[in-house]
Design brief:
alpha+beta; seven-stranded antiparallel β-sheet; homodimer; Thiol Ester Dehydrase, Chain A; about 150 residues; 3 helices
């Protein structure tokens, strides 16, 4: 069953399962997308105040959205997204840590020009599973079809 | 030569080389991070109004920052970033297209609590090389050490 724009309400919450992030995952992503050395070299990470390499923020962001998409909430309604606001990396993500996400609807706006769709703004929060400490937040914009379009 | 916080000024511009994005790159990224079907299935892309699969926005974002990091502007000064604002996907990115980026300093704020560093806000713009059409914009926050720290 797919949700449509009309099925979404402010305050609605969605929670994902957990995902274990390995050191190799962190190294692979850094190699592909983020050459900043504190994502691939433990000594470089120590010089910026961390005990060892941490995931690239682009990796944490991509994993967080992957966990959200894996909920398959609105497979029949989803259209390409217009954007994301307020991406914030609050704590580092290390290899061997497990993450899970909570997403809360904070705004739902029907399109004025296109009556078949609307934009839903979600607060995405990514927690380290054991501590439940929030390591990442962002406000994702999701474009969804209306049920009665 | 590495830039430090003190070497950066509002209005300063940086431009990257070009990077060719393949259809396989798009498929690989989608498989890892974005199961929305319009990134892996041409028919699904057509149902949302595009001629074929387009890169996941997370992929476009990650590639855009990769191109920026590859400039190695501030290798000796860079610390982990606090975040990104106003991520916007303006046009789709297709396999076979080449992209390049322009980054413009729009704000530079010395830390009040930590005199050894500051935050630089850059407007990142990703262009399709041939048309120079802007396909992606974001405001990246970059935490840099001060030269005299």
């Amino acid at each position: 069953m797919s949700l449509f724009f009309d099925d979404v309400w402010v305050g609605q919450e969605f929670r994902s399962g957990s995902h274990l992030v390995s050191r190799d995952d962190i190294l692979d992503f850094a190699k592909a997308f983020d050459p900043n050395p504190f994502h691939s070299d433990d000594e470089a990470a120590k010089t910026v105040g961390y005990p060892g390499i941490m995931a690239s923020g682009l990796h944490t962001l991509s994993l967080s959205f992957r966990l959200f998409f894996d909920l398959h909430l609105w497979d029949e309604a989803v259209m390409p997204s217009p954007g994301i606001d307020k991406v914030r990396w609050l704590k580092p993500l290390y290899g061997g840590q497990e993450i899970q996400i909570k997403a809360t609807v904070i705004e739902a706006t029907a399109s004025r020009s296109k009556p078949d769709r609307g934009i839903v703004r979600l607060l995405h929060e990514t927690m380290e599973t054991t501590s439940q400490g929030v390591i990442f937040t962002a406000e994702g914009l999701h474009r969804l079809r209306r049920r009665l379009a």
